[in-house]
């Protein structure tokens, strides 16, 4: 074993002083913690006092010791790291320096590894940073007794100096990071990393400053996302952040080297670039941006459409001061967001925006000023024609503007968060009105009240409905709550539970505007609803467009299979009414019978027991047929032949006239000549099949080209094909067979119970 080194050796004292001086210079000149610890280990190693030096960081969470840097023979150290780290852990745990001057006398086996490698002395010195041990300095020496009092004191002083240096560096780094963060947040949006409004306005000033000729033009696109709030409610903020970053990346492709893309808010972007939209290049760019915004974005595996409105403003065409150009673009974007698509700025938009702000201010005071009132639209049974219900509809009678349409103020109320308060007023007022009509001895009708998504989110909505019924004395079976399909976007389990709680009160529930939202059969089966309300957008063309007809048929059939009743809204003509009756839709409301009425006009309808005029019973189709032929002689012969069997025969010389008759009359069989001038008989009967699949279709043809007839047969468009001229007995037997076929098809329809005029 080597002899102990004498602590009074003058050369050693000089060496210690030199080491301390070097370490002090290191702590003053080094600017990062990693560099500081690396230079310290090098200084210890090059001092001649130690064979190896290493520094380990203490992990804040686990308190584990992680080697950061070292000086000396790496292979030698790695073979002995376990033994040296034991002493370092002891220093960390005890919070004080640990010195071992004669490892050969230590009983632990770990230290035997060091002795076998020629290491007889070791030290571990903890370094504190802001009160906690952040690292440990570890020194290995070949001479026993290396760590005398003078060296131990020096090492403790070094630890204090290193701690001071580390805290100083940390403070500088934190201040620098904070300053960088403040600068970043001042000019960039953290959500997407895009420039914000400040940088946008600076860049627009740069683009327009001193640019000659056409280069002075600046085109600014303000992009307003329309459905962001709904998507956030469904998928959450984190998922939407990803969608916005994806959208930002797509828009970035159109920025160009001298333009700027900025984010002005969670749902607003702006794209500015030099150039005039009249040029082909700029016009094409705007078109491409518009196309990109129509594309879906993948969010957590779901396809989401954000539906943006784009406002375009041009400097100096629309605004001579570039500082106000964004205001012009925003005005155009607001209108585009309402209408969808793209809108260029015009002066009337500013006027409209000012009017909107004033209207919004008036709306906030409308409830307390008692400016709201209810109108009522009758709902009618399609079998009896009787009024069986009314829908309560909110109207605003402005003191200066008169009656304001709901399309103007309902969306505004939703944006301002006024729906819960106003909705409760509607509910209580409607219940009070219905009870008052009953007390006056009028025919009892169920009253339907729309319930907004904002109302339904309230935790106490069930109690709100319960109190309204109790305070007004209306029995719950006379109240129907109309819920919007968009509720399905909310927390489905919670919504379904609330619906069950409402049903427990005894009220009815209907699903409003069905087919326009997000309903699925899986949810529809779980919803405790009583009725489906078919949206008016499907009713508009139901008697002429096969697509609308197919949707309405599917909705009614689905409702029947689930035991639900159906009501069609927006019925405006006899063709729509006739089609709905043929599909066994239960009820309707719309301008065909009545517009929404003030209370006094509705009460007059109830007193007069006004009904929908249903000209013929649905059973009339069992003996009514339609003959379509532009040959008047052929029509007369057909009519004469068929009336002998007691059939009611309707005639049409044009296919469009025939379609009107099919919609408004109850018809079981249709016969059409193939050679019609405006639409071939096979094409007409194909449309009849799509619109009225129960009607039996027969084609008359003397046409020599049979390709289209064969195709119609193969498609299943035709029940029979008869030659022209025909044999009377063959024709009459074919008609009898056709009506028997109609009986079979019509008899397969199943109806669910409907409301009458006296019970909901």
From TrEMBL:
<dbReference type="InterPro" id="IPR011006">
    <property type="entry name" value="CheY-like_superfamily"/>
</dbReference>
<dbReference type="InterPro" id="IPR000160">
    <property type="entry name" value="GGDEF_dom"/>
</dbReference>
<dbReference type="Pfam" id="PF13185">
    <property type="entry name" value="GAF_2"/>
</dbReference>
<feature type="domain" description="EAL">
    <location>
        <begin position="356"/>
        <end position="610"/>
    </location>
</feature>
<dbReference type="InterPro" id="IPR043128">
    <property type="entry name" value="Rev_trsase/Diguanyl_cyclase"/>
</dbReference>
<keyword id="KW-0808">Transferase</keyword>
<keyword id="KW-0597">Phosphoprotein</keyword>
<dbReference type="Pfam" id="PF00990">
    <property type="entry name" value="GGDEF"/>
</dbReference>
<feature type="domain" description="Response regulatory">
    <location>
        <begin position="624"/>
        <end position="739"/>
    </location>
</feature>
<protein>
    <submittedName>
        <fullName>Phytochrome-like protein cph2</fullName>
    </submittedName>
</protein>
<dbReference type="Pfam" id="PF00563">
    <property type="entry name" value="EAL"/>
</dbReference>
<dbReference type="InterPro" id="IPR035919">
    <property type="entry name" value="EAL_sf"/>
</dbReference>
<dbReference type="InterPro" id="IPR003018">
    <property type="entry name" value="GAF"/>
</dbReference>
<keyword id="KW-0418">Kinase</keyword>
<dbReference type="Pfam" id="PF00072">
    <property type="entry name" value="Response_reg"/>
</dbReference>
<dbReference type="InterPro" id="IPR001633">
    <property type="entry name" value="EAL_dom"/>
</dbReference>
<dbReference type="InterPro" id="IPR029016">
    <property type="entry name" value="GAF-like_dom_sf"/>
</dbReference>
<dbReference type="GO" id="GO:0000160">
    <property type="term" value="P:phosphorelay signal transduction system"/>
</dbReference>
<dbReference type="InterPro" id="IPR050706">
    <property type="entry name" value="Cyclic-di-GMP_PDE-like"/>
</dbReference>
<dbReference type="GO" id="GO:0016301">
    <property type="term" value="F:kinase activity"/>
</dbReference>
<dbReference type="InterPro" id="IPR029787">
    <property type="entry name" value="Nucleotide_cyclase"/>
</dbReference>
<dbReference type="InterPro" id="IPR001789">
    <property type="entry name" value="Sig_transdc_resp-reg_receiver"/>
</dbReference>
<feature type="modified residue" description="4-aspartylphosphate">
    <location>
        <position position="673"/>
    </location>
</feature>
<feature type="domain" description="GGDEF">
    <location>
        <begin position="216"/>
        <end position="349"/>
    </location>
</feature>
<dbReference type="GO" id="GO:0071111">
    <property type="term" value="F:cyclic-guanylate-specific phosphodiesterase activity"/>
</dbReference>
